[in-house]
């Protein structure tokens, strides 16, 4: 008797399961109806300062002065840190001395050029005197007062003095040109040394706010180390990541509805202001920026956000469940003579509903296929 009761109980349970399973796998009927629909693209990201940029050290050394702290305002060209490196200071001093010497040597009254000018004057005086001596010796030779050898010696002296004068002038010009080149080289070295030393004063490239400093007094710093984060003061924007499958839907000016973990359920509104064309290969997403519609005073940056980019909205759209839409935008509708399939033109879409632009009318009974 007990066994019979257990058998009946088991059969009843099996029958109930079959009925439930059967009901779950039946096709369902729904009606196309008009409702409001909002299509949106999900995006995640951060709130960041506008024109944010990272400040890097341009040379090695040690922090010997820190002029700004997190949250301070800063002007373009204003120093944030001072870095010390004695070798560059010594190099600047040597370059300065070399430049001063090179400049002195190119002056018209420099000792180098003055000595060469004296050689020119001496050669010129001799050149002017030798022709007179030659003419006098030539007359004396005609009067048989001197020998041919003495006349030839006078001629040779004239030729030598002419060559000496030309050589003195050429030596002056050559030396002056070389001194000018030396001056340009010294000027270049001095400028370079000055720039190297200037790199030890790490300054801001814009008016803004310092959101982060990464070094403290006494710390060593290497070239290309990040030392600070700067952006516009009080002006925050959204930096969002959009999946590659959705990026084609995102356009400039679209509304963005935003929530932040740090502010709970409060909703903020923004609009797409920039779309970057390069895809991030790591997560297959594109970066977009959005500007807030109001001047919200956020006292934080890099807080995480979740956003919906509003692609479209209609207040009285004809909708069907998304599950009713089959391959190639086909929909099965119930008819008196049997079910038929029609092709629709879809419009806005959400995870639950699809807007029907053409192919159905309000009240049509739609068949939702049974789950496979």
Question: Which SSEs are present, and which pair or pack?
Answer:
Elements: H1 2-24, E1 28-31, E2 33-49, E3 53-56, E4 61-66, E5 73-74, E6 79-84, H2 86-106, H3 111-142, H4 148-198, E7 201-203, E8 208-213, E9 220-221, E10 226-231, E11 236-243, E12 255-260, E13 267-280, E14 285-292, E15 304-321, E16 330-333, E17 340-343, E18 345-349, E19 353-358, E20 365-368
Antiparallel strand pairs: 1-20, 2-11, 2-15, 3-10, 4-6, 4-9, 5-8, 6-7, 8-10, 11-14, 12-13, 12-15, 13-14, 15-19, 16-17, 16-20, 18-19
Structural write-up:
This protein has 372 residues and is an alpha+beta fold. It has four helices and 20 strands. Helix 2 (86-106) packs antiparallel against helix 4 and helix 3 (111-142) packs antiparallel against helix 4 (148-198). It is elongated and about 155 Å long. Residues 1-24 have low confidence and may be disordered.
Primary descriptors:
372 residues, Elongation Factor Tu (Ef-tu), domain 3, 2 domains, four-stranded antiparallel sheet, elongated
Order of helices and strands: HEEEEEEHHHEEEEEEEEEEEEEE
Estimate what percentage of residues fall within beta strands.
Answer: 35-45%
Distance between the termini: 41 Å
Largest sheet: 6 strands, antiparallel, barrel
